[in-house]
Amino acid sequence: MKIARSTLIPLVLLAYLTVMAFIGYPAYADGRTSALYYFGVIATTIVVIILLHFNLKHRERLRRERLQDMEKAESQNEK
Global pTM? Predict the structure, then answer.
């Protein structure tokens, strides 16, 4: 079964965010980065990834509906 883009892309981005948060944690732990900045960037990125997921889901639904309408129009033209 094919994984939908609306699922795959956000999962890849979440994995990337996890790795980057892990890499940046020592700077936060040493006090070189404030908690507001460290967790703010993580929270903002998560919100953007969630919005991306819903946007991609909406586009997939519109594409599916458009393809169904085109198939319906083709079948009516053949009659």
Answer: 0.85
pLDDT tens track for 37-74 = 999 999 999 999 999 999 999 999 999 999 999 999 88
Q: Find, among 47, 63, 77, the residue nearest to 4 by Cα.
A: 63
The contacts of residue 25 (CB under 8 Å, 6+ apart) are 38
Residue 10 · residue 52 · CB < 8 Å? yes
Distance CA 2, CA 18 (A): 24
- Angle, alpha carbons 14-47-34 (nearest 5°): 85
